[in-house]
Structures are given as C-alpha cells and as structure tokens.
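ok so i was messing around last nite and threw this chain in just to see what happens. nothing serious, just curious
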Amino acid sequence: MSFMKEAKTSKFDRDPALASPLAAAMAAQDRETLKTVADALKDRRMRLAYQPVVYAADPAVIGFFEGFIRLLNLRDQVIPARDFMGAVERTQLGREIDCAALQMGLMSLQRNPQIRISVNMSARSVGYQRWATILRKALRDSPKLGYNLILEINAVSAMQVPDVLRPFMEEMRNHGIVFALDDFGAGLISLETLQDLRFEIAKIEGSLVRDIDRMTGPQTVVRGAIALAQEMGMYVVAEAVETEAEATWLREAGVGCMQGYLFGAPSVTPDFRAFRHGRPNLGALAG
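result:
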C-alpha cells in the first residue's frame, strides 16, 4: 500500500503577495506608500494647489479654480498623486484625503468669498461621516458658500455607488453646489447613470486633448463627447490644454472652458484677485 507524501507549503504559497519577487516588492511599496500618506495627513503636511479654469471665448476671464491635493514628505517635497492615489482610493486614507481637500477648499472660500473653486472627491466619501459633517457644518455656518463650490467626481467613482450619489447630489443642489464629471470621454459611465445623476459640468479627460489639433482619432472621440455632454445639458470643460493650437481647436469644437499649463500651473499661492467677479460666470449652472 502506498501513501502520497504531504507536499510542503512554502510561505510564498501561503501569502500571494510573496508569490514572486516583483509581487513582494509591490506589496512592500504599497505598505510604505500608505505609511507615508498616513504620516503626512497626521502631521498636516498637505496643501491645495489651485489651477485656473478659463473661458474659451476669453481666456483672460477665470471661471473657477480647481484645487488639487498636495501631500508633502518630511523634506517638504510634493509626493506625486500618481504615487499614492491608486493605493489609497479604496481605503480609509482615501476618505481622509478627501476630508483634507474639502476642508482646505472650504477655508479658501470662507477667506475669499468672491471666488469659485472645485474640489475633487470620491463618491465613496458621501457615506463617510467625517467628510459629510465637514461639508454640512460649513453650509450651516455660511449658507451662501455652496453657490461658489463645485464638487468633481470621476466617472469610475460615480459608477460605483450611483444610488448613494443621487440623493446626495439632489440635497446639495439645494445649497447651490454644482457637480462636475471628471475624466469624461475616457472613464466608463453608462448613459443611464449619466442621465440619472445629471452632472452640470463635463470635464474632458486630458489624455484626449493632447495634440487634438492634429490627431484625427481623438478628434472624433472629443467631438462625440462634446455633443453628448451638450445633449445632456452639461457645460464642457477641457483639461490639460498646453498649446495655442489645442486651445483653438477646442474653442471651435464648442468647449466652454479650458484649463492647463497654457493658462496657468497649479499653485499653492494662487492670486485669487485674478478672479474677475461680476464677469460672465458659471452661476447659471446652479439653477
């Protein structure tokens, strides 16, 4: 009678993260990234960098400023968002980053009531109590503040919890808040969800804008995205505009606003005086 010997199980088989040297290195990198982000949040080493979003018809007029979260390492150097957002998006740290961005954005509005800004958020943060408390307290303390606030949600995030997002958006619209759909044209979102959530602003993904004046493939996609957005009643903003040729093509294609290094880089010390209050603005979108 023969018996099969029990195979020995290595630690690499027990732990999928150690299945290969590459996987082990990536797991270690993710752990280090999470620690770096957690330390930056704990020590308040963070800023919002604001980039102007200008009117296509008159780039001298700023429609609003978008705030980008900047986390700093111990040497006060910016930690690139691409290095941590993927690792933290589904964790509590992702929600805490949204809290920090919202809080700093609201403080900027309270100090500069003449401006309008947009703040990025994940749809997951709607159900995060601290984030919701920060927003609702600010709206109670400064009832008019919502009319100067735009909340940006990317397409992938919007698709994850549309049933939670819908009543939240309806509630916040009563306070004057406008919603922008980020990554439009590149991020996947169903037409049914798009119609149901009724975003006021569509922001065309920057990768589609690069060299748009001479790339016929992306031109077809962007024209289609603009047409769909307009059909859905959304105001169209193009991101990552870097050349005059791109700006000219986008303007002629029907884009309402543009942002990118052509008009100004994100800055932690923006000149909010450049916002010319009283000129044509996006206020009608809140109505």
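not much to say yet. The radius of gyration is 22 Å.
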